[in-house]
């Protein structure tokens, strides 16, 4: 059985599935992001509860990420009146609720959703987060039946270099 231990950054203590993964060591307290405003804190707390169990919260200067084995969801620095949450799946979801969907080769899709009220964290979002949490557990690595969409639909945002590689017939996961 392969070693499934996580690498721990010796500077900040954050953990990762691979050695020396790019990250920010500018670790902050959660209050540095959410401040004293009870409205966004209530939305954040409901989002964390919807993640379905204990997760590691990695709070850095520009974002907060949620992790089981790998990072599977998070929020950008809060806006004045809303949170911009994201979650990772191995398939794209087409929904008017989503602000954007970005493709990351070979088969990851980062979905972004605006959360302004506690009610925005509803059953639909909770179901997406449950699937995303399984990606965080790396079920897609061990389950051969797990769906992996390697060709992004035209409505998904694709980085220019990745789109060029796809157009040439190259492996887009080799683009750095």
Number of helices: 5
Structural class: alpha+beta
- Secondary-structure element string: EEHHEEEEEEHHH
- Report the principal-axis shape: globular
Record field, number of beta strands: 8
Contiguous low-pLDDT stretches (5 residues minimum) are none
Overall description:
There is one protein chain. With 176 residues, the chain is α+β, with helices and mostly antiparallel strands. The chain contains 5 helices and 8 strands. The strands form 2 sheets. It has a 6-stranded antiparallel beta sheet. A two-stranded antiparallel sheet has the order 1-2. The protein starts with 6 loop residues before the first strand and ends in an 8-residue tail after the last helix.
Topology:
Layout: E1 7-8, E2 15-16, H1 31-34, H2 38-50, E3 56-59, E4 63-67, E5 71-76, E6 83-89, E7 98-104, E8 108-115, H3 123-136, H4 139-142, H5 160-168
Antiparallel strand pairs: 1-2, 3-4, 4-5, 5-6, 6-8, 7-8
Task: Describe this protein with a few key phrases.
176 residues; alpha+beta; six-stranded antiparallel sheet; two-stranded antiparallel sheet; 8 strands; 25% helix
């Amino acid at each position: 059985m392969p070693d499934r231990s996580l690498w721990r950054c010796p500077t900040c203590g954050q953990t990762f599935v691979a050695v020396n993964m790019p990250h920010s060591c500018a670790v902050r307290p959660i209050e540095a992001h959410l401040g004293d405003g009870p409205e966004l804190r209530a939305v954040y707390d409901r989002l964390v509860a919807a993640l379905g169990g204990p997760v590691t919260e990695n709070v850095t200067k520009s974002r907060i990420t949620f992790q089981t084995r790998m990072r599977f969801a998070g929020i950008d620095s809060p806006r004045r009146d809303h949170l911009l949450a994201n979650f990772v799946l191995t398939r794209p979801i087409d929904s008017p609720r989503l602000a954007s969907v970005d493709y990351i080769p070979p088969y990851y899709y980062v979905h972004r959703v605006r959360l302004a009220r506690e009610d925005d964290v509803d059953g639909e979002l909770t179901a997406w987060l449950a699937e995303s949490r399984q990606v965080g557990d790396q079920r897609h690595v061990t389950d051969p039946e797990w769906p992996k969409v390697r060709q992004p639909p035209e409505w998904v945002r694709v980085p220019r270099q990745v789109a060029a590689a796809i157009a040439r017939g190259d492996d887009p996961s080799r683009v750095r």
